[in-house]
């Protein structure tokens, strides 16, 4: 898609990390979660961030999603430095531009499916009528409309994750961050959820950032970024960069 | 997040953990109940006392007496030494006043002149000593009877009829309503206008009978004792008592000073100060009754203190409930923050939950207090307290009820502030970690 635009007016990348570092503690207790990570994700890309537990992949996602501030370096979202934004603007950004899918769903068990799905719209301050209408559209597109009034606790695992995706989609985000989206699902259901995420990327052009340690899932993405001990050890889209970092 | 959505979410969240919310609400309920009951009790009793005082005290009247040694003692070290030259033994006046506290020296004629000369005093009436033996009406028997010598300054709390006409030359009586049955009257209205006979004995032992008209019937009152009599009757009773013997009239201990019309409070204070300088102590009737009001206020205050203690305990309950709630909902809070909810809104959400608990607890407590209070009040008024007419033990004033609800909601809000700010400070990534 980006190839259609004139090179001079190329849109800035959806997400860009420039020499990111993140460390916790200090002195002997200092722990470097990320060291000098640079990464550029274009709009509409599907990127897997891969690595073992403790490799810093979740931290990278948090920093990219401006849930956490880096110790050094900067994050640019559509070309805007996140540091230059106020807390209010960051909240707006996460609310309008980002959708989140987590391994453990984080659904409100006692609330209905539709109330869970409308949460980002409620936070955005939309009126009840408008947000329910939008939620119904999204639920319909995910084949969940008949479950709209059901309590979240009554759903199966696959239905729960589809509800989570509906919630992530409700605010019409440009980027969806998925942290181990299939980690809690059996392989058949997991495959369905994967198909759903990739179709969103293909059909709606939503940028997909998937954090996973599942190689099969990673292999389905356009690009794989491998992290080890807080450093990028390989990036399938930038073999040159990979050489440089070694 | 829109405010209405915040409120809706807060209320829904409050009921998510029903048992915990119920227990916290119960704690607040106890506080609200106690506070409402004691406030209403204080208000009820005070308003009763106030009615009594207002009914009792005519405006612009000072009760003047010589400064007692006890009064003076307050300014020196201990009681004054007995001096046969200057001190006389003081005795309580017959038909004594319920208002006179310490016993004072009788007022001499010079004293009376001195008091009358003070600016702002337009008239002076020494309280005369009257003594009556019995009262009867038609064929009824004779019943013990006492006249309140201070009728001139009192305004009776009337059940029927009219107040005494102090200017009239005919003899008038305001009859306490507990005499009605004894004197064969069917009702208070029946007694008004009737003639009653009063019997008395003078100091020589001779008996006299007087006829007086009943102009009004008074309710029993905390302060006014005995029947009211107008000036003409009091003067007559007093002169009959001395049987024309020179010097047999004891000097009055108390004189009633009438103030000029329209004096302001500060001007009245000036008069009191002038009297004080001249060696007299002067008090308005409200002053003398002030102690009663103070005691009532003290009792109410102690009861309210208990209520506040209950509320403080309840406040810790709220803190605990909400802290647990914040703990339990760590991930939910993290998720909402990740989705762009501001810390301020998170704080508001938890504060609203605290206030919801406060409002529910206080409304239930106030409601229950009103039901129980009205029930107990009605039962007591019909039973043990039937003699205190016009007393409604619990006065539920809308403003103070609102005050209780607001106070408890405020306490709930303050208690919720700590957990709410803890929730607001939570960092989304900490909350969303699950490894």
Tertiary shape of chain A:
globular
Q: For the terminal residues of chain A, how far apart are their CA atoms?
A: 32 Å
Write down the overall geometry of chain B: elongated
The number of helical runs of chain B is 12
Major β-sheet strand ordering of chain A: 6-7-8-3-9-10
SS-based class of chain B: alpha+beta
Major pleated sheet of chain A: 6 strands, mixed
Question: What labels would you give this structure?
Answer:
heterodimer, A: 246 residues, alpha/beta, Rossmann fold, six-stranded mixed sheet, 9 helices, 25% strand, disordered C terminus, B: 435 residues, alpha+beta, 2 domains, seven-stranded mixed sheet, four-stranded antiparallel sheet, 12 helices, elongated
Question: In words, what does this structure look like?
Answer:
The complex is a heterodimer of chains A (246) and B (435). Chain A has helices at 57-64, 87-97, 113-117, 119-124, 128-141, 157-170, 187-204, 215-219, 239-245; strands at residues 15-24, 31-41, 46-50, 72-77, 80-81, 98-102, 175-179, 207-212, 223-228, 231-235. Chain A has 246 residues and is an alpha/beta fold. Chain A has one domain (44-58, 87-245): P-loop containing nucleotide triphosphate hydrolases (Rossmann fold), CATH 3.40.50. In chain A, the strands form 2 sheets. A 6-stranded mixed beta sheet of chain A has the order 6-7-8-3-9-10, sandwiched between helices. In chain A, helix 7 links the parallel strand 7 and strand 8 (207-212). Chain B has 2 domains: 3-53 and 291-432, no CATH class; 59-282, no CATH class. Chain B is built from 12 helices and 11 strands. Chain B has helices at 3-14, 18-56, 69-73, 109-117, 188-191, 231-242, 265-277, 285-328, 330-338, 343-382, 398-425, 428-432; strands spanning 61-66, 121-126, 134-136, 143-144, 158-161, 172-176, 195-201, 207-218, 228-229, 254-259, 280-283. In chain B, the strands form 2 sheets. In chain B, strands 3, 4, 5, 6, 7, 8 and 9 form a 7-stranded mixed beta sheet that branches. In chain B, strands 2-10-1-11 form a 4-stranded antiparallel beta sheet. The radius of gyration of chain B is 32 Å and the shape is elongated. Classes of the chains: A alpha/beta (246), B alpha+beta (435). The A-B interface holds A 53, 58, 62, 65, 67-68, 87-88, 90-96, 100, 102-104, 106, 108, 110, 119-120, 122-125, 127-128, 171 and B 1-2, 5, 9, 16, 331-332, 334-336, 338-343, 345, 427-429, 432-435.
């Amino acid at each position: 898609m980006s190839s259609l635009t004139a090179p001079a007016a190329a849109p800035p990348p959806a997400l860009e990390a420039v020499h990111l570092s993140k460390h916790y503690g200090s002195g002997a207790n200092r722990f470097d979660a990320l060291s000098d990570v640079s990464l550029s994700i274009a709009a509409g890309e599907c990127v897997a961030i891969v690595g073992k537990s403790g490799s810093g992949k979740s931290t990278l996602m948090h920093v990219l999603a401006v849930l956490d501030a880096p110790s050094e370096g900067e994050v640019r979202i559509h070309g805007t430095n996140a540091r230059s934004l106020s807390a209010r603007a960051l909240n707006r950004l996460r609310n309008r531009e980002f959708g989140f899918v987590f391994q453990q769903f984080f659904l409100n068990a006692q609330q209905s499916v539709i109330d869970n799905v409308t949460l980002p719209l409620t936070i955005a301050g939309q009126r009840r009528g408008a947000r329910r209408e939008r939620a119904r559209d999204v639920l319909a597109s995910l084949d969940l409309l008949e479950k709209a009034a059901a309590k979240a606790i009554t759903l199966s695992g696959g239905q729960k994750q589809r509800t989570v995706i509906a919630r992530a989609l409700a605010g019409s985000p440009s980027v969806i961050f998925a942290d181990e989206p299939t980690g809690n699902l059996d392989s058949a259901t997991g495959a369905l959820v994967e198909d759903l995420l990739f179709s969103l990327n293909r059909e709606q052009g939503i940028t997909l950032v998937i954090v996973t340690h599942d190689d099969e899932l990673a292999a389905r993405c356009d690009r794989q970024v491998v992290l080890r001990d807080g450093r990028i050890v390989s990036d399938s889209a930038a073999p040159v960069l990979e050489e440089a970092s070694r | 997040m829109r405010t209405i959505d915040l409120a809706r979410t807060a209320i829904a969240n409050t009921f998510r953990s029903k048992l915990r919310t119920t227990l916290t609400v119960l704690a607040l309920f106890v506080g609200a109940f106690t506070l409402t009951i004691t406030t209403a009790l204080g208000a009820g009793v005070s308003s009763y006392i106030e009615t009594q005082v207002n009914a009792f005290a005519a405006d612009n009247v000072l009760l003047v007496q010589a400064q007692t040694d006890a009064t003076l003692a307050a300014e020196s070290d201990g009681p004054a030494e007995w001096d046969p030259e200057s001190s006389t033994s003081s005795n309580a006046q017959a038909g004594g006043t319920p208002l006179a506290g310490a016993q004072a020296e009788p007022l001499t004629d010079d004293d009376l002149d001195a008091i009358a000369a003070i600016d702002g005093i337009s008239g002076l009436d020494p309280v005369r000593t009257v003594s009556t033996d019995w009262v009867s009406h038609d064929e009824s028997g004779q019943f013990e009877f006492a006249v309140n010598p201070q009728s001139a300054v009192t305004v009776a709390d009337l059940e029927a009829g009219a107040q005494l006409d102090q200017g009239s030359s005919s003899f008038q009586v305001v009859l306490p309503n507990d005499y009605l049955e004894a004197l064969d009257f069917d009702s208070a209205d029946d007694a008004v206008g009737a003639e009653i006979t009063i019997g008395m004995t003078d100091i020589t032992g001779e008996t006299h009978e007087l006829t007086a008209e009943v102009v009004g019937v008074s309710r029993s009152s905390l302060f006014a004792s005995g029947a009211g009599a107008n000036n003409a009757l009091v003067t007559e009773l007093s002169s009959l008592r001395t049987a024309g013997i020179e010097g047999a009239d004891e000097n009055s201990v108390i004189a009633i000073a009438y103030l000029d019309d329209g004096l302001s409070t500060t001007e009245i204070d000036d008069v009191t100060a002038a009297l004080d300088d001249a060696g007299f102590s002067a008090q308005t009737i409200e002053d003398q009754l002030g102690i009663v009001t103070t005691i009532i206020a003290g009792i109410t205050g102690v009861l309210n203190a208990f209520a506040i203690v209950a509320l403080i305990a309840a406040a810790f309950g709220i803190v605990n409930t909400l802290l647990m709630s914040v703990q339990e909902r760590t991930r939910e809070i993290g998720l909402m923050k990740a989705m762009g909810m501001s810390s301020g809104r998170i704080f508001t959400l938890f504060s609203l939950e605290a206030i919801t608990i406060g409002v529910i607890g206080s409304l239930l407590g106030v409601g229950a207090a009103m039901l129980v209070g009205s029930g107990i009040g009605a039962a007591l008024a019909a039973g043990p307290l039937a003699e205190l007419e016009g007393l409604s033990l619990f006065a539920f004033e809308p403003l103070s009820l609102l005050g209780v609800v607001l106070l408890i909601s405020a306490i709930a809000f303050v208690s919720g502030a700590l957990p709410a700010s803890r929730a607001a400070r939570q960092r989304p990534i900490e909350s969303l970690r699950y490894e």
